Amino acid sequence: MTLEDLIPPGMTLEDLLVTMSGISVLISVVAVWFTLLHRDVSSKRAKMIADQRRDLRSGIMMPKRRGSGKQPSVTLMHKTVDRLKLLRSAQAKKVGVKLMQAGWRNKDAMVKFFFCKLALPFVFGGVATFMLYGIEAYDMSAAGKAGAALGAVIFGAYLPDILVKNQAQKRQSAIRKALPDALDLMVICSEAGLSLDATLMRVAKEMDKTAPELADEFSLTGLELGFLPDRRTALQNLAVRTDLTVIRGMVGTLLQAERYGTPLAHSLRVLSAESREERAMKAEEKAARLPALLTVPMIIFILPPLFIVLIGPAALRTVDALSNM
User: Residue ranges per domain, the chain?
Assistant: First the structure.
């Protein structure tokens, strides 16, 4: 088979090269365009914060109507969760706290979590059963197939918890890294004479693009300080949503300043220095762990090629000398 046989009829080799060159240029232009395209994520985040503020205002300021039952949902998730009464279970409050720590505070987050928690074991189990017993994609024993199917069901049951935990850890890490800079800004704002809620809102506005997670928490806390009757509750909600030791210390300092009238700027400056020291200690801890973590990859991937390069030629020469003898 020659190259001309592979070319479509009615097209020469030059036409094929020109077409392929045009497609390559088009793909390159599209790739460069998407690379240089600026995606503004701050508008989406600002809209989410505005929706949270509106919901909070309506929940605090609007009086509750008596006798207004819950609206029937039209989605399958809501119907399933409402029918099984999963939102009224003992785990609903704990799940709500975990979702808040992961940054998912909308109304449908808990419904989606419980629905996935209920449906994913059946989905993973059904797919595994079909693959193992239906089409027999894998040659396994009967015990192996049963164990694999059971493992798929267990994995589907724990997958929502794993995703929520990973998201919460990523969010906590981002908040921990951005907190010293936020505390420095809070010191400046407090020394300028701003109140606590105005300070939090100003810091959230300044750190909206650099640290969106911390800006989201500060903006919500500043809003709660303005609307909740008890300011202590708003600050404690911040500690619960973040679940960080540094944030708990900051909340304790702010509560002490609110109660006893201690200077807020000096306390925040001390907290900023402590948080920076903690961040430096975390970095030093990671750096100290590197030799132990690199030992196993070095033994597996570096030493064998090194031995081959150093000892290989001598071993080959020895083999040749012995074969000639």
Answer: 75-169, 172-281
